[in-house]
Amino acid sequence: LRLKIAVVVGSARKGSINQTYAEALEKLAGEGMVFDYLPVGELPLYNMDLEADMPTVLGDIKARIQAADGVLFVSPEHNRSVTALMKNTLDWCSRASGGNAWAGKRAAVCGASPGARGADLSQMHFRQIAVVLNLEILPQPEVYVHVKDGLFTEAGDFASERDASFQKRFLDRFADWVATA
Ligand code: FNR
């Protein structure tokens, strides 16, 4: 069984550590999952007026969420909350044609930060938002990655066996969560 996972990375910048982290997870997941990175950076800033003439990328993103077995959110924290990109994505896909694309979807959240607390508060806000979206987030483990030099190898894998095995257990729990929906 190969699970199809739609992936939202909450930072669109070149060199994003969260993009690197997502790709490290993709490699750890191996044959068990196929990651589909959603082009959320292409969505305009949400404005209800734009719903009259929907951005085509929105339909594309919503269809890819629909087609996925589960959704993985990998995001940094901005000012102790979700990034604007994350909130914009959540808002757009909760609206307009086809309705709320998140409803009943099984998902997981994780994130990386150079801060010691590894983006923990943003994930608490994220979990609060997920309630109204009816987005079913894996309760445990909570995954707060504190990024320091040497966390990833040059090839973008987790350098330590300890980190790799924790992240692999997270992916296994996520796979079970998605498969039992
Ligand atoms: C940050 N950063 C940050 N880090 C953190 O741990 N807690 C926070 O509240 C914030 N707040 C914050 C606000 C803004 C506007 C920026 C630009 C940055 C630092 C952040 O974790 C760091 O820039 C990461 O490298 C962002 O992740 P990406 O873009 O590398 O994936």
From TrEMBL:
Protein name (Swiss-Prot/TrEMBL): NAD(P)H-dependent oxidoreductase
- Gene3D superfamilies given in the database record: 3.40.50.360
Q: Which domain of life is it from?
A: Bacteria
Which residues belong to any copy of the NADPH-dependent FMN reductase-like domain? 4-146
Q: Which PANTHER family match?
A: CHROMATE REDUCTASE (PTHR30543), NAD(P)H-DEPENDENT FMN REDUCTASE LOT6 (PTHR30543:SF21)
**Matches recorded under InterPro entries:** Flavoprotein-like_sf, FMN_Rdtase-like_dom, NAD(P)H-dep_reductase
- The positions making up the signal sequence are none
From what organism does this protein derive? Answer: Brevundimonas terrae
